[in-house]
Design goal:
The complex is a heterodimer. Chain A has no helices and twelve strands. By secondary structure, chain A is mainly β. Chain A is globular. The N and C termini of chain A lie far apart (41 Å). In chain B, strands 2, 4, 5, 6, 9, 10 and 11 form a seven-stranded mixed sheet that branches. In chain B, strands 1-3-8-7 form a four-stranded antiparallel sheet, with no helix packed on it. The chains are: A mainly beta, B mainly beta. Chains A and B meet through strand 6, strand 10 and strand 11 of A and strand 5, strand 9 and strand 10 of B.
């Protein structure tokens, strides 16, 4: 069964510094991987997703992620963060059960940007 | 933004009382989901629906029931609320069962059981 592990529960970073949020997955079949962002008191918004093809996926707000099949990872990166990037970030993998798509989420990583 | 409206957005209720959360969508999507979010657990699937009157359990369905009598509405009911059901509840929608399809989320309903 697919599962997702986000390796850091909290990541503090200074403004304009680079950041990497780590995500590992387990799956015995082809995977579709997602990163969602949740700003304070809001719902989840899709940042980017990997379906197939190029292993480097670009998303919104300057984020990108790299799919690494051999290491079963899908780490999220941004070269220079802003205060507005303060949020919780969720990695997720798809499961197909009884013909319906379901997302299985990691525990979340809280990104805090310090001035 | 996907047309998803959750109500109520915030609710405080007493242990043992029934509670119903409503999710309303304007996208005519076939698939609808209820997730709960708890610290350290991410989001976990409670129930989902793959059509009118077609529903099934997710990984944390105990203590919850759902109903879908119209395409646009998906109701989550806590028959007798407990403190362990204090959480943030998210409704989500999708128009396809394909694995790479984007699932869109509502703004959340904050439920406190005292």
């Amino acid at each position: 069964a697919q599962s997702v592990t986000q390796l850091d529960s909290q990541v503090p970073v200074f403004e304009e510094a680079p950041v990497e949020l780590r995500c590992n997955y387990s799956s015995s079949v082809s995977v579709y991987l997602f990163w969602y962002v949740q700003y304070p008191n809001q719902g989840l918004q899709l940042l980017l997703k990997y379906l197939s093809g190029s292993t480097l996926v670009k998303g919104i707000n300057g984020f990108e992620a790299e799919f690494n099949k051999s290491q079963t990872s899908f780490h999220l990166r941004k070269p220079s963060v802003h205060i507005s990037d303060t949020a919780e970030y969720f990695c997720a993998v798809t499961r197909i059960i009884q013909g319906a798509q379901k997302l299985v989420f990691g525990q979340g990583t809280r990104l805090t940007i310090n001035p | 933004d996907a047309g998803i409206t959750q109500s109520p957005r915030h609710k405080v209720t007493e242990t043992g009382t029934p509670v119903t959360l409503r999710c309303h969508q304007t996208e005519n999507h076939r698939y609808m989901y209820w997730y709960r979010q708890d610290p350290g657990h991410g989001l976990r699937l409670i129930h989902y629906s793959y059509g009118v009157k077609d529903t099934d359990k997710g990984e944390v369905s105990d203590g919850y029931s759902v109903s879908r009598s119209k395409t646009e509405d998906f109701l989550l009911t806590l028959e007798s609320a407990t403190s362990s059901q204090t959480s943030v509840y998210f409704c989500a929608i999708s128009d396809s069962p394909r694995g790479g399809n984007t699932i869109y989320f509502g703004e959340g309903s904050w439920l406190t059981v005292v």
